[in-house]
Amino acid sequence: MASPEIRIDQLTGARVLLTPGRAERPDQFGLSPWQPSGPEGCPFCEGNESATPPEIEADRPDGSAPDGPGWRTRTIPNLFPALIPEFEVETGNESGPEAAFASSADPLLASSRRAEPDLFSSRPAVGHHEVIVNAPRHVVSLAELDPDETAAAMAAWRSRMRAHADAPYVQLILNQGPDSGASIEHTHAQLGATPFVPAAVARERERFNAYRERTAGASLLGEVLREEIRRGDRLVAIDEEVALICPWASRFPFEMRLVPRRPEPSFEEGDSGASMLHRAVAALSSLVEGELQMNLWVKTAPRGVEHFHWHLDFAPRLEPTSSFEMATGVDINVVTPEAAAEKMREAIA
């Protein structure tokens, strides 16, 4: 592909600009190289449990005591939470009518016709924000975990998501490296149980439902995956459980999507994908100079939604965000997903 191209993401309807020619432009800045500082003083390392809040949950195969050594994964409250439990909310910390927050669309449209809309409505950010430490030893990348450690980490992610099944939505993310937004280098994931369904997730759900109605029950992502397997140019790898693809409208260079081969609505209710994630992150790490910096996120069914198809997406941090993306919400990707998939097929074990 020589000329710039606009593609539409099947799941969200969002536009993406693919501009491989821009990869040749002069770059005097770029993202900073990551030089990990090591385990000294790391609060997430085994033996330093007293440096964190008391654990919420831990995988302790030998039955060791809480808040001490002997764990495989460990979940603690986030010291600087974006969401706080309801019992910690100060009374009176709100403004505007409750109806404004009952609408999943535009809060202004939820206002009573007889009342003036409240242009400054707010509510406390009630929910839960947790940190899941992926391994007791000091590793800075998922690529450094062995297959069993990756499986244990993913099992912990799912366990904590199930623990918040009553939340409207549970978002699992992983930031790796300073340019990704991580503040501690020891590998860890974060979970946010939100009191609302984020707009991007609601948009996917609506498109899943619309496609299902139009096709008498077909899964949108299931159909996309079947066609990606048939075409093969964006398929990276496949096993009995999941497939790994570079999405048609990839927003970022080397963005990848791990998809269960059979439509499953909820990531947290399954057990597949750990082996493929381990292989994929190791391959991606081999293609990047220096330590791999990346973002990872899971899209799962909101509470009470039956027709969805979970997927786990991740992308390395290779390009800074520009004003165009900020102004328009349209991402510019300088690496086509076809080129990324070809390189990944050569690298993956």
Write structural notes for this entry.
This protein is of the alpha+beta class and 349 residues long. It has 2 domains: 8-23 and 41-89 and 127-349, HIT-like (HIT family, subunit A); 95-123, no CATH class. Helix content is 22%, strand content 19%. The protein has a 10-stranded antiparallel sheet, sandwiched between helices. A 3-stranded mixed sheet has the order 1-2-13. Strand 1 and strand 2 (15-18) form a beta hairpin. Helix 1 crosses helix 4 (274-287). The longest helix has 17 residues, at 147-163. The radius of gyration is 21 Å and the shape is globular. The model has no long low-confidence stretch (mean pLDDT 89).
Order of helices and strands: EEEEEHEEHHEEEHEEHEH
Name the structural class: alpha+beta
CATH class of the largest domain: Alpha Beta
Order of the strands making up the biggest sheet: 3-4-5-7-6-11-12-10-9-8
How many domain units? 2
